[in-house]
Amino acid sequence: MTYQFHSYRSLFPILSDYVYLANCSQGALALPVSKAIEEYNRQLLFSGRNWKQSIAKMEETREKFAKLIGAETDEIAILTSVSDAISAIASCLPFRNKKKKIILTDIDFPTVAHIWLAQEQFKNNVTFIHSTNGMIHLTQYEKEVTNETLLTCIPHVSFYNGYKQNIKEIADIVHRKGSLLFVDAYQSAGHIPINVKEMDIDILTTGTRKYMLGIPGVAFLYIKKELAQQLKPKLTGWFGQESTAVFNMSNPVFATGARRFETGTPSFISIYAACEAINLLLQIGVHNIQLYLQQLADYTRNFGAEKGLQIIGPFSAESSSSMTAFYAKNALKVEQLLKEKKVIVAARNDVIRIAPHFYNNKDELTYAITELARLMMEK
């Protein structure tokens, strides 16, 4: 296995002391990202006010994220969390008697269900598609999505076991039934290529703190241009107004496109970090990252199986992401014991999630899996 990203390892100081495999929870901090955070801090320390620079950085970040997912800049809103992005859509989606059903899945991150079930008008019209062994067959979308479905909300990649869905095929099904498609890309953006136009996605959200290598405080909301113009946000603020209406208290005018979903002053320090993180991803190329991580994922599954570890979720490359979940009864305890061995992974419920990025290599995975197998034998 050729390792083509060795020169980038020096950008991640944590790799000097740890095998870092927890990108499904928090990406490792790169030096350029850290320097961007320091630059924001330096501007405040020595200038006292950096509003113009921060607004410029926000627009630069918007443009870079739009490029990352094949969107137009006016189709991107910058918010503070994926929960905020989902809430913004859930609270403004028009309820119609003949079009009122919301389809979720049991592999969504729990906050998705929390938000939709909190909506008075939709809470009794939410249907869950149930997975089998953590996976969902396309026939289930054919069956569950009907002409009464207003919106189908799905994860691109499961947070629990790394199962990857075919977004384009699902889009074809739900659009044929007249449903909108809302994709949660928090576990895919940054290591799996996304093109919202080719995939025919209506709405997409993701944050920067996982595979996108940023820090908490920034999320992106993509809304197809023609759809955004039809929606009237109920969660809004001065950033969501046309510039001429910002200081007009009695006559608000929504901004054009997805920007109307922005609210108040964002976390600029997180935007500075996001800008450099996305720049790094664009420089390397997400397609190149995916090709490399497919090799690491294949090795992880195969070597893990050789060591007697039980894989939870998909085994085939077609339906797998770069994350592999291994069963561990006391996952949180195992996570802590692995950290004592200088291996950082992310436990979730009854699994240990091994989630490498482009800066990881085969030797690190060999060590991490060997240590995990040893701990499992001791249990």
UniProtKB/TrEMBL annotation:
Pfam families: Aminotran_5 (PF00266). It comes from the Bacteria. One of its GO terms (molecular function) is transaminase activity. Keywords: Aminotransferase, Pyridoxal phosphate, Transferase. Its cofactor is pyridoxal 5'-phosphate. InterPro entries: Aminotrans_V_dom (IPR000192), Aminotrans_V_PyrdxlP_BS (IPR020578), PyrdxlP-dep_Trfase (IPR015424), PyrdxlP-dep_Trfase_major (IPR015421), PyrdxlP-dep_Trfase_small (IPR015422). Residues 52-347 form the Aminotransferase class V domain. SUPFAM superfamilies: PLP-dependent transferases (SSF53383). Belongs to the class-V pyridoxal-phosphate-dependent aminotransferase family. This is Aminotransferase class V-fold PLP-dependent enzyme.
